[in-house]
Amino acid sequence: MRKNIFFAFSLLLFLSTTISHSADNSIIAHQFSQVQDFRELKLIGSERNLRISEINSVKRNIKIDKLLRKSMQRKTDYLISLEDDEDQVIYRYAIGNPFVIHLQHIGYEDEISRVINQNAEIVIYYPSTLEPSSVILKKTINEKAVTMDRVTIME
Fold it and tell me: Which range, of 24-33, 45-54, 80-89, averages the lowest pLDDT?
């Protein structure tokens, strides 16, 4: 009897979180489907020393759609958060790990070669209606987001 109750409760919990998660994704997708004007933000540097190289206004295109979908689906080591003047997160963007370059050489396929990229270029797109005051680079460590760098946006 207890096993049946536990199973029923577990199934109900699973279904409610699955439905809730898919509803959140559809809301996010719907919000992005309405946006036509974006800003392109380019960051250059290492994980402890980022700087903004440029901010451009761009119209929605296939490249932006692809990158937005990828950032929402990606399991990430790093993410970019945009915050407003009150330090509230207004946008998040998953970027993977741009600070490591994986190398492969003919004849050494079984060996793992990595190089730290101290001059990584990170490009993110966000709706132009947002007015962030700072860009925060966060790294996932033990399933917690740890702030690595913060850059103030001055326009």
Answer: 24-33
> Mapped to the 3 state alphabet, what secondary structure does the chain carry?
CHHHHHHHHHHHHHHHHHHHHHHHHHHHHHHHHHCCEEEEEEEEEECCEEEEEEEEEEECCHHHHHHHHHHHHCCCCEEEEEECCCCCEEEEEEEECCCEEEECCCCCCCCCEEEECCCEEEEEEEECCCCCCEEEEEEEECCEEEEEEEEECCC
Range of the domain at 66: 38-152
* CATH code assigned at 135: 2.60.40
Least Cα distance to 122 among 103, 143, 149, 96 occurs for 96
Do 131 and 72 sit in the same domain of this protein? yes
Position 85 pLDDT exceeds 70: yes
What is the mean pLDDT of the segment spanning 64-75? 77
Does residue 78 surpass a pLDDT of 60?
yes
How many separate domains does the chain show? 2
